[in-house]
């Protein structure tokens, strides 16, 4: 049975996927886009247990893949990222971070996500250009970290 809190988080995740697909896909810098769904999944790692976060991340990744025609790349990379980083992020959730610390944590997580995404996509031949490596691994990581740092600045819960 799905608890109402998890269902609420799933609906919020649908909203993040919609914002990602409708708005953020068109706000690109050097063909790189920020990943709002990844930021939501990282936030979930600090608030929920591993199983709930894995299920929600997998489902939101599959939804994001189905809307962007990537079929499994985001789902695999987000699920593997949660599996690897959940313990670290959950332990550090009680700490109060400065903006540069948030930037470093989010950029590290986004870089790991993008490395997983790139290696999985290289097997399928989705991305064949060397520019994609620069765009995906560097610009997208910094763009996602900047968005995550900005959202950390304007958050309302303390």
Name its key features.
globular; mainly alpha; Arp2/3 complex 21 kDa subunit ARPC3; 76% helix; 158 residues
Query: What's the total count of β strands?
Result: 0
Strand content: under 5%
- Structural class estimated from helices and strands: mainly alpha
Unreliable runs, pLDDT <50, ≥5 residues? none
Query: Which CATH class applies here?
Result: Mainly Alpha
**Terminal residue distance:** 31 Å
- Element order: H for helix, E for strand: HHHHHH
> How many individual helices?
6
* CATH-derived architecture: Orthogonal Bundle
Mean pLDDT reading: 85
Structural Rg = 15 Å
CATH topology: Arp2/3 complex 21 kDa subunit ARPC3
Secondary-structure map:
Elements: H1 4-22, H2 36-47, H3 50-68, H4 73-91, H5 99-124, H6 130-154
Task: Explain what you see.
- This protein has one domain: Orthogonal Bundle (Arp2/3 complex 21 kDa subunit ARPC3), CATH 1.10.1760.
- It is globular.
- The protein contains six helices and no strands.
- The model has no long low-confidence stretch (mean pLDDT 85).
- With 158 residues, it is an all-alpha fold.
- Helix content is 76%, strand content 0%.
- The longest helix has 26 residues, at 99-124.
In short:
This protein has 158 residues and is mostly helical. It has helices at 4-22, 36-47, 50-68, 73-91, 99-124, 130-154. The protein has a single domain, classed as Arp2/3 complex 21 kDa subunit ARPC3 (Orthogonal Bundle), CATH 1.10.1760.
């Amino acid at each position: 049975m799905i608890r109402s809190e998890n269902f609420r988080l799933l609906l919020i995740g649908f909203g993040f996927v919609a914002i990602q697909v409708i708005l953020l896909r068109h706000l690109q810098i050097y063909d790189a886009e920020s990943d709002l769904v990844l930021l939501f999944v990282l936030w979930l790692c600090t608030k929920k247990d591993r199983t709930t976060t894995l299920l929600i991340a997998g489902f939101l990744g599959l939804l994001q893949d189905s809307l962007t025609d990537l079929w499994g790349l985001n789902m695999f990379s987000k699920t593997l990222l949660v599996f690897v980083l959940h313990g670290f992020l959950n332990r550090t959730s009680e700490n109060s971070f400065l903006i540069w610390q948030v930037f470093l944590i989010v950029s590290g997580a986004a870089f790991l996500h993008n490395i997983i995404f790139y290696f999985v996509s290289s097997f399928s031949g989705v991305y064949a250009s060397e520019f994609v490596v620069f765009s995906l691994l560097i610009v997208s990581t910094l763009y996602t970290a900047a968005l995550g740092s900005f959202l950390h600045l304007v958050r309302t819960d303390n």
